[in-house]
Amino acid sequence: MDQDPSAEKKYPVYIVNKCMSHHIDTVMHANEMNRWPSLPSKLQYDFFINTVRPKKRFSPWDKKDKIEDLETVQKYYGYSVEKARQAIAILSRDQIDYIKDKMNTGGHNERHERRQGDSLD
């Protein structure tokens, strides 16, 4: 950061604090930096570089939970993602199954079990 003045502008404060909060030995450091969000990036960088011991730290990124049938409800009603989430919360399982049947266009990827007695004719 000392050699490149543009590096201070590129320093992702939020991302670094989030990454540091995933580890037991750095969570308090991240919390301390979250208490002082108006500090310049250079000071936050210097704080971490001088207080956190070097160590290999690996943790997976948190991902949003995938809501089943979200895209189907979104397409059926023409809703945004947020509206579709709200709709799924109030729709019953039967209503969602009805929507899935209406939105089913058939095709190679759609596999449905044949009912007994159905023939290929």
Strands, helices and their partners?
Elements: H1 5-10, H2 13-20, H3 27-35, H4 41-51, H5 70-77, H6 81-90, H7 93-103
Helix pairs in contact: 2-3, 5-6, 5-7
Radius of gyration: 25 Å
Q: How would you spell out the order of helices and strands?
A: HHHHHHH
Determine the mean pLDDT. Answer: 84
What helical percentage do the residues reach?
Answer: 40-55%
Tell me the structural class.
Answer: mainly alpha
User: Roughly how many Å apart are the termini?
Assistant: 74 Å
Total count of helical runs of at least 4 residues: 7
What sort of overall outline do the alpha carbons produce when their principal axes are compared?
elongated
Strand content: under 5%
Low-confidence stretches: none
Characterize the main sheet. Answer: none
Number of strands: 0
3D structure, described in words:
The chain has 121 residues and is an all-alpha fold. Among the domains are: 5-51, no CATH class; 70-103, no CATH class. It contains seven helices and no strands. The radius of gyration is 25 Å and the shape is elongated. The mean pLDDT is 84.
